[in-house]
User: What shape does this take?
Amino acid sequence: MDRDERIARESVVAAARALDAQGLNRGTSGNVSVRFRDGLLITPSGLPTDRTGPDDVVRMGLDGTHPPDQKPSSEWRFHRDILASRPEFGAVVHAHPVYCTAFAICGQAIPAVHYMIAAFGGSSVRCAPYAPYGTAELSDLALAALIDRNVCLLANHGMIAAGASLEKALWLAIELETLCQQYAVARQIGTPIILSDDEIGTTVERFRGYGLNAVQPTAPETA
Assistant: This one.
């Protein structure tokens, strides 16, 4: 293992632990991957984050091959398929945060209730229909929900966020959970007002030069 691979493995472990620290995951749920050379590095199956080290991270080829003495996350398939089909993405985060998962359990998409939805690429966050975890069917449904988007919900399951880097993917995951929480609270208060597609389209364009979409890895300017 060379220095570059060691650094990449450490970044996967750090990202997985950040999900726990942010309250987006608990125990062995959720998984993280990063594009690496001609394949990817992904968190292992069934190992608690606090016990996962760089050597436990599994190196996979885009053909699904991996060392026989290691077992990748059960969700390796959609990680592999997203990275294989979306060259603009360099990392994928999958988690089960409370508010995202609550909407996913209800099979509900998230509409444009806040302009920050533009950070996800459009005027909605889609919810992919249910399919058993780890299956090719789930991967296909996730890919469809991610068309022109960088996040989606998975019915009765959780969420996916993909970005050019692990930092970007983690930021998107946190922003999505925040938006879902805001939407849930707003529905308790009254009837949320949905922003128009034109408004969100304008904001999408403005966001292209802000925050983690730009050169410097900082969050976009908000008001």
Strands lie at 31-36, 39-42, 58-61, 91-95, 127-128, 151-154, 158-163. Residues 214-223 have pLDDT under 50 and may be disordered.
